[in-house]
Amino acid sequence: xxxxxxxFNTGLKALPYRSPADxxxxxxxxxxxxxxxxxxxxxxxxxxxxxxxxxxxxxxxxNCTAMATDNFIETDVKELTGIEINISDRFVSVIAGNTKSxxxxxxxxxxxxxxxxxxxxxxxxxxxxxxxxxxEYHQDIPQGTLxxxxxxxxxxxxxxxxxxxxxxxxxxxxxxxxxPLKATVRYASSDNGEELLNPTGKHNxxxxxxGAKYGAYWIIYDSYARxxxxxxxxxxxxxxxxxxxxxxxxxxxxxxINMVFKQNYPYLLVExxxxxxxxxLDGRMIIDSDWSKIMVQSASRLKKYExxxxxxxxDWNSVPHVNLKGESIV
Length: 330
What we know:
The chain is α+β, with helices and mostly antiparallel strands and 330 residues long. Helix content is 21%, strand content 21%. It folds into 2 domains: 2-254, Alpha-Beta Complex (Cathepsin B, Chain A), CATH 3.90.70; 261-322, Type VII secretion system EccB, repeat 1 domain (TTHA1013/TTHA0281-like), CATH 3.30.2390. The strands form 3 sheets. The chain has a 7-stranded mixed β-sheet with strand order 2-9-3-6-7-8-5, sandwiched between helices. It has a 5-stranded mixed β-sheet with strand order 13-10-11-12-14. A two-stranded antiparallel sheet has the order 1-4. It starts with a strand and ends in an 8-residue tail after the last strand.
C-alpha cells in the first residue's frame, strides 16, 4: 500500500532563483565527468553509507537537504577511495542555516564549499536519556569545531551543478553512470519494499538516486524511512517526475587516501618487512608495538572493538606517526 504525506514536509523549501553563476549540466558547465559504474555493477548501491534517520525517537530535524547532501558525498568518497566516512549531519544542518520549515536544496553543499565539514565523531548527535530537541540540535557550533571543519578544505574540493530532470529519464540514467543524483521528490513509502512508488503532488523531500533498472524504476536512498514504516531503499517508477536534481563534484587533492582515513579507527600496515598497527586520530597515526594497547584505544573510542583496516605502505607513510604519548616517531 502506497503511503503519502499530504501536509507533510521533511525539510524542503522551494528552490530560490538560480543565478547566472549556477552551473547547469551540459555544454555550458565547466565540470567534467566520466563513467564510473553502470547498472550491471549495481550503480552506487555498494557504496551507500550506514543508514542514519533524521526523525529518530520522534524528533524531526527537518534536515533532509543536509542528510541527502552528506549521503551523496559519503557514497561518492567510498567509491573514489574504498574508505567509508561519516559526515556530521548535525554540523552541516547548522552551517547551512536549517530551519523548522527546512532548507533549500543547494544551501548545504554551498555551506560545505565555504566552511568544510567535520566527521560524526567530531560533532555527534549525542543523548543519554532522550534525543536533543530541535533547538539543542541546532545550537551554535564551538569555534574549535568550525576551525577543524575548515581544514578539510585542504583535502577536499567540492562543486555542484543542476541537472534538467523534466521528461528526461534517459539523460538522468546516463548521468547516474558518472555520479549519484540528489533529487527532490514527493515523499512516499510502502509496506512492500518492491512496490513501485509514483506519488503525485508537490515535492516535499530531498533524497539520493543511487541506482536504476532502465525503463522500470529508480532506486533512492532515503533519510526518512525507517521510522515511518517504509524502507531505506525505495523504488520510484521510471516515469516519475523528479523536481530539482543536482550532482556534486567531489575531488580529492592529490587523490591521497590519507584524506579519508576514518577518524578513531585502527589501521594495519600490510606491506613492508613487518606488520604494524596504528590508530588514526586528528590527522595522525598513533603507533605502538603492543597491539593490545592500540585495540583498547580503539575500543575506548568506538565503544566496541573494530577490525583493523588494511593500508598500503605509501598511504601509511602519508600521515605523521606518533606514539601513545603524542611524541613524533621518525
